[in-house]
Amino acid sequence: MPHYRRILRLAARYRGYALANIGFNALYAIFSLFSLLMVIPFLQVLFGTVAVPEVEPAFSWSRESLAGIFNYRFGQYVGTAGETAGLILVCGVVVVVFLLRNATRYAAMFFLAPLRNGVTRDLRRQLYDRILHLPLGWFSEKRKGDVLARMTSDVTEVEWSIMNTLEAAFREPLLIGFFLAAMLMISPQLTLFVFILLPLTGLVIGGLGKSLRKPSRAAQDRLGDLLSLIEETLGGMRIVKGFGAEGQQTARFREGTTALYREQTRALRRKDMASPLSEFLGIGVVAVVLWFGGRLVLDGAFAPEVFIGYILIFANLLNPAKAFANAYANIQRGIASMERLEGVLEAPGEDLGHSPASASATYTAPINSSAPTTPADSKLKLEQSIRFEDVGFSYRADRPVLDGIRLQLRKGEVVALVGPSGAGKSTLADLLPRFFSPSSGRITLDGQDIATLPLASVRDLFGIVTQEAILFHDTVAQNIAFGLPEGSASREAVVQAAKVANAHAFIQALPQGYDTVIGDRGHTLSGGQRQRLTIARAVLRDPQVLILDEATSNLDTESERLVQEALQQLMRGRTALVIAHRLSTVQHADRIVVLQDGRIVEEGPHAALMQQDGAYRKLVELQAF
Questions:
Q1: Where are the domains of the chain?
Q2: Mean per-residue pLDDT over the chain, rounded
Q3: What single string gives the DSSP state of each residue in 175-208?
C-alpha cells in the first residue's frame, strides 16, 4: 500500500516515540500471554492432574525444565500453606499481571499520541505549504470548496482512519505473533489446523476492506461539491437575495446533501459489515477448533486442562486478529482520502528559487526545469526594460488568449493597456510576475529570460494593485505590511505609506487606529478605503515595477479621486503597467497599448492615437474602457 507507506515515512521523524510504543506493546503482549499461560500449570497443580516433583529439577531454557520448577515450587507452597492459600496466590498473581498488562498498554498509547498527532500536524503543514506554492492555473481548474474539503475533511479522515489504526498496526501483530508461538509450543498439530483456517477468514475481510475505498472516495468528492456550493452561496449572498434565488440554492443544496447521504450510507454499510462478519467468521473458526481439539482430548492425545488453556489463548488471539482486520478496513477509507490529498501534494509547484523554512522537500516540484542563473538571495534590478518577444498564451490549446505580443516596457515609463473585455489585458499583466508561463515566445528583463531567474526574485520586482482589494482578517498595520518579513516594517514606515496612499486620515478615525482589526476581507471598510490600504501596501513594498489592474473601476467619484491621487503618488518615478477602463486613468500615460483579440492593434501616446481615428478613438468615444 504505497499511500500507507507515505504515512509511515512521515512518521519516521517520530521514530523514538514509535520505538517506545513498540517496546511497551511487546511487554503488553508478553503480559497478556503470561496471564493466559499461567492458567494451565495452576490448574494442573491445584487439581492434581500433574505429579509434583519431589526434587526441584535442574534449570535450563526448556519447557520441561521451566514447567517442572514451577510445579515443584507451587506444589511445595500449596502443600505447606494449603489449597486456599494457593488460590489466593493465584488471584494475587493474576491481579499483578493484569496491572502490568494495562500499565504497559497505557504507556504504549502515551508514546503513540505525539506520533499520531505529529504526523497529522505535518500533513496539514505540507498541504498548506503546497497550496501556497501551486501555480494560479491549478486553482482555475479546482473549486474552492473541493480544496477546502481536502484540507479539512480528508485530513480528518486520514487522521481517524489511518492514524487511529497505528496502535493496531503496532500492537496487534505482536500479540498475534506471541499467541501463535505459544499455541505452537502447546500443540503444533492443532495450530497447523488454525493456520489453515485463519488466512481464509482474512481474505474475506480483506476483500471487504478493499471495496470500501471506492465509495469512501465518492463520499469525499460529494462533500467537496457541497462545500463548494456553501462557499459560493456565502460569497454571493447579496446576489442570491437580490435575485430571489433562495429557493433555487436550497434545491441545489438539498440535492447535494442527498447525494452525500447516499454515498456515506453506502460506505458506512460496508464498513459496519466488517466487525460482525469478522466476529462470525471468528466464532466459526473457534467452533471448528473446539471440534478438532475435542476429538484429540477424547482420544487421549490432549490433556483437558491444556486444551482449556489453548482455547483461552486462541480466543484471545481472535480479538487482535479482528482488530487488525477492522483496522485494514478503516485504512482503506483513509487511503481514499489520502489519494485526494496526493492530488494536491504531488501537483507541480512553483520553484521560488529558495525553500521556505516550512517547506518539505518531499513534495517540491519545479514549474520548469531551467536552472536559476541568478542566486536566489540576490535582488534583481530593472536597468533598461522588460520586453515581450513574440509572446503567446492560452489557457486551453484550442483558444489562444495572446498571440504574437511584442511590447517593450522601459524603465521609468508608464504604459497603459486598454481594450474591450476579453482582449487579454489582465492575462498579459499576469505573465510578468510569472503567475502563468507563456505558451510561446519569452519575456526578458534587460535581455535575460525571466523564466531562468529565481521566481521569488522576479516577483520582488513588482507591486500589484488589483480591481478587487484583497485584504485579510487582521489589523490595518498588518495588512499594510503584508508580505514583508516579520518586524522589518516600522510603524513609522507603515504610517508614511498610508499617508502616500491617502489612507492615514480614515485610519486614525478607526476605533483602534492602525491596530483595528478590519474583519474578513476588510468588509468593515468602504470600497475606497480598502483600495487605499492595498495601495499603501504597494507603497511600503517599494517595488520597481507597478502593475495596476483596473484599480479604480469599482469606486464612486469621490473615492476614485482619492485613489487616483494615491496612484499618481505611487507611480511617481516608477515603471508602471496600468490596466484601466476609464480615460482619466490612462490619458496621461507615456504610452497607450490597445489590445484586441489577444493582439496589439495600436500603440502610442493619447494625443497621437486620437488623431489616428482607429480602435483607441472608438473606445474613447464609446467610453468602453
A1: 2-345, 385-622
A2: 79
A3: HHHHHHHHHHHH-HHHHHHHHHHHHHHHHHHHHH
